[in-house]
Structure formats: C-alpha cells, structure tokens
Amino acid sequence: MNLKQYTKEFSYNFRLAYPIILGMVGHTLIGIVDNIMVGKLGATELAAVSLGNSMIFIALSLGIGFSTALTPIVAEADAEKNANKIRATFHHGLLLCTILGILLFLLIILAMPLMELMHQPADVIALAKPYLAWVAFSLVPLIIYQGYKQFADGLSMTKYSMYAIIMANIIHIGINYMLIYGVWIFPKMGIVGAALGTVISRIIMVIFMHIILSRREQLKTYFQDFSFEEIKKETIKKIIGLGFPSAMQMLFEVVLFASSIWLCGNIGKTSQAANQVALSLSSMTFMFAMGLSVVSMIRVSNQRTLMDFKQLVVIARSIFLLAIILEVFFAIIFITFRHDLPYLFLKMENTSQLADNTEVIQIAVKLLLVAAIFQISDGIQVVVLGALRGLQDVKIPMYITFVAYWVIGFPISYYLGEYTEWKAQGVWIGLLAGLTTAAIFLYMRFHYLTKKLINNSFSNN
Asked: What would the 3-class secondary structure string for 277-301 be?
C-alpha cells in the first residue's frame, strides 16, 4: 500500500473530526480559563484549582470513558439502518449516564478528606475544598451531556456538540470574570466564582444539546415516548460491558496524570503550579488526538459492520498518520515557545508573588520539553484505542493500559520525582515512559486483530 491510500482519507477524516476537536478543546478551555483567571490571583490559588481538578479529572474520566460505549453501538446500528437499536441505545445510555453523574458527584464529596492524607499544602487545601464541591456538582449535567454527545457522534452528527461547547465557553468566560473578580453587582468570590461559572455553563450546555437535537426532523423519533418499561436488562448489560472497560482505560491514564499533580505537590507548590501550566497546554493539544480517536471509533465501527476489513485498516492507519502529523506540529510549537507559554498563566506584575512565579516558569520550561515528546506517544495511543473500541475490543486494551501506566509509568515518575534531582521533570519522564509503552502495545493489538479478521474473511470466501 502506498502513502496516497492513507492521505486521500485525510479530508473526510478531518471534516468529521474538526467539530469533535473543537468541542473537546472547548471542554479543556473551561479548565484552562479557570487556570488563567485564577492564576492572576496567585500561585496558591492556581495550585488549589490544580488540586481540586485532579480529583475532578478522575471522576470525569470514568464518566466520559463509560459514555464512549454508546458511539460504536449507535454507529453499528446506523450502518445496519436499525432505528429501534439506535433508540434503545440512546435511551438506555442517557439513563445510565444520569445515574453515573449523580454517583460521581457523591463519590467526590466523600473523597474530599483524601486531600489531607496526600500531605498537600494546608493553604492550598483550604482554598481547594469549596471549589471542588461546586465543580463536583457540575459533573451531573456534564455526564448527561456526554450521553447526548456520544449518541450524535455515533450518527456522524459531530457538529452539535461543538455548538454546545462554544456556547458554554462564551457563558463560562463571562460568568467567571464577573464572579472571580467581583464586577458590577457581583461579589468577588475568587476561585469559588470560577467553580460557579463551570456549574452554570454546564447546566446550560445540556439544555442546549437537548433542544438542538430534539428539534431535528430525523431525530424526533428518538426523543418521543420515553418509558421505563422499555428499559431492558440485555441492552444495559451490553452498554456496561463496553462502557466499564472503556472507563477503566481512561481512568488508568487520568489517574496517572493526577498522580503527577500529587507528586509535584509533595515537591512544592511551585512545582505543582508549573505542572498545572504544562498539563493545561498538553491537555489542549491532546484534544486534537481525542477528536481523531472518536472518528477512528465511528469509522472502524462502520467498516466492521460492513465486513470491509481491508478498507477498515486503510481508514484506521490514515487516522493514526494524521494524529502523528498533528502532534509533531504541536511538539515543535512547545519546543520553540517553551520560554513564552508559561507567562499566559501567571501575573508577573505582582511583586509579592515574583519569586514564586519566576520559579514556576523555570520548572514549566523543562516540563514543556518532555511534554513535546510525550504528546506524540499520547496521540498515537488514544487514536489506536479509538480504533479498538470501534472493533468493540475493550478488555485486553484495559489490561495493556493498566500495565503501561501503573506497572511502568508511575514507578518511574515516583522514583525520579521523589529520589533524584530531576524532581518535577522526572515525574514527567515517567508519564512519557507509560504513554510510549501503551502506544506500542495497543498498536500491536490492533495489528493482530485486523490481520486475524482479514485472514478469516479470506478463508470464509
């Protein structure tokens, strides 16, 4: 196969991917806006938001990971032209997402005392707790929104979630500005204001998504006459069977990144703040690969249903190649502008914070060098994971990601961060090791499965 077979798929892949990418960048922007606006208050406030979000990211990974199970099932039903299956998947998925959102909110509230057990700075914990309580509540509308989003993505209607996120970000920035700094009639609430901005914008986002989808003529049948009598144990089992391992895969990675926040917190608040700067920037570029991962899931699922396994491999590899090109481009940006990017997150005019902020920038510059390399591995592993979900292969990838992140990545992060002079940079080298291991073994799994499918289709013919 020549390169042209892959590159000719780029245009369609990107048309399908760009709304998902913008939607996911919008998700990340909500956190980044909090970081930038709160960072102007000081390094302690930035570290508090970082600590609070480290726990939110864990819960969020479970919710988003679980909801991704809906997309391949809906995409499969769409290829089969099976409207009843699409309707059943949507209704069951939305119910499960609502229950999961409530459970995750309660889980975060119960887990708040863990911050003391993790030996985080006391002044950081005091600020983080009220922020965390409100942002935890925002998980309920956010996970419900994910049910709508994954349903629409499975039907290749990827633009609607983009519209919802753009609107949510506009509202979020306005509310944040007024509540963090106390503009006009609004009180100055600091980081609690940032949390309230997140809650309000996410509630509006899910309402908007419901209205925009339910008013589309071809989707109206899926929004009519919901009844609990339609809920079937078999459909719930199928969604959970795909959703649980997918949630675990995402959880293993996100907890690894959350552990980098905790490890850097043990080193000191400047390391924790620098870690948050680098994490915010690399999370933003990772969303491009995440968008391509969803496209990988949709298109592989469609080809699997059509039993066209050779074309499935061409499409998947074209998406892998596109992800590598994008992540290499971002790596060059990180390396070139590593001395400039951290200034976006800190207010250098504040003389009382100058020493801390200068140290944060020095550490962040080193972390961005590692981030430049690891985001290439991160991009590869997430698009291959999307292709494997499209094949409805989730259990073995779950084990692969656990070994890569927790048997290989975390021990390296812990040792280099705690026991060597590498400190925060050593923590990130461990992240790089885990992500690279995951990328290699997940691709090997994809190659093995697709080769087996192609061979079996030949032998059956």
From this structure: HHHHHHHHHHHHHHHHHHHHHHHHH
d(CA 385, CA 368): 25
pLDDT computed for residue 39 by the predictor = 75
Contacts of 120 (CB under 8 A, 6+ apart): 51, 128, 262, 265
Q: Which of 164, 162, 148, 153 is nearest to 389 (CA)?
A: 153
Residue 415: pLDDT above 60? yes
Q: Which residue has the tokens 């199970």?
A: 69
Close Cβ partners of 163 (under 8 Å, ≥ 6 residues apart): 208, 212
Please provide the DSSP assignment of 91-136 as one string. Answer: HHHHHHHHHHHHHHHHHHHHHTTHHHHTT--HHHHHHHHHHHHHHH
359 neighbors 294 (Cβ within 8 angstroms) = no
What whole-number distance in Å separates Cα of residue 434 and Cα of residue 413?
Answer: 9
pLDDT the model gives residue 212: 94
Residue 246 phi/psi, 5° resolution? -65, -40
Residue 71 CB coordination number (10 Å): 27
Dump pLDDT digits (tens) for 176-196.
889 888 888 888 888 888 889
Return the residue matching tokens 């030949």: 458
- pLDDT digits 0-9 by tens, 3-13: 888 888 999 99
Which of 203, 266, 260 lies closest to 53, judged by CA? 260
Structure tokens at 247: 């949630």
Contact between residue 176 and residue 194 where contact means Cβ atoms under 8 Å apart:
yes
Percentage of the residues of the chain whose pLDDT score is greater than 90? 55
Q: What is the pTM of this model?
A: 0.84
Residue 389: name the closest of 290, 301, 272 by CA: 301
